[in-house]
Amino acid sequence: MSGEPIEALLEADFNALADRLEKDRFAEHVLFRLGARRRARIGVVAFAGGLGAAFAASQFTDVVSLVAPALAQSAPDLAAAGLMSQLLTTLLFAGALTATALVLRRES
Fold first, then answer.
1. What does the CA dihedral 15, 20, 26, 31 come to, rounded to 10 degrees?
2. Rounded CA gap, 96 and 104, in Å?
3. How many domains does the structure of the chain reveal?
4. Do 67 and 88 contact (CB within 8 A), yes or no?
5. Residue 78 belongs to what domain range?
């Protein structure tokens, strides 16, 4: 009795098992669930950032009124043109955006 027929049977059985395992969705399901947690975490951070931005925007005029006089003394041309508050707004939003980007980068 030769060993070839047994090897052929074992190979066919192994191939059938490998085909069945390839079609198993367990790994895909686990990866999807892990990705869902990551997406939920990013959503929560984005929501918190938006909520924080809304609160910051409601108090922004007070912040500008506190800081603008000090900045206006150093740049009278910008204050005369009304650009000081726009420059201050841009700097504050750039800082908030940078902080949010740093938080999101550490999450991924």
1. 50
2. 12
3. 1
4. yes
5. 59-108
- Which tens digits make up the pLDDT trace of 5-58? 888 888 888 888 877 766 677 777 888 888 888 888 888 888 888 888 787 777
> Full-prediction pTM beyond 0.70?
no
Which residue is listed with tokens 């500008």?
64
10 domain-assigned = no
Assess if residue 87 is contained within a domain: yes
Mean pLDDT of 82-106: 76
H-helix or E-strand containing 108? none
What angle, rounded to 10 degrees, do the helices at 26-58 and 60-74 form?
A: 70
Residue 50: both structure tokens together: 């938006």
Three-state DSSP at 59 gives coil
What confidence category does residue 1 fall into, taking pLDDT thresholds of 50, 70 and 90? very low
Is residue 34 situated within a structural domain? no
* Alpha carbons 43 and 46: distance in angstroms, whole number: 5
Kindly state whether residue 95 falls inside one of the protein's structural domains. Answer: yes
Rounded Cα–Cα distance for residues 13 and 93 (Å)? 63
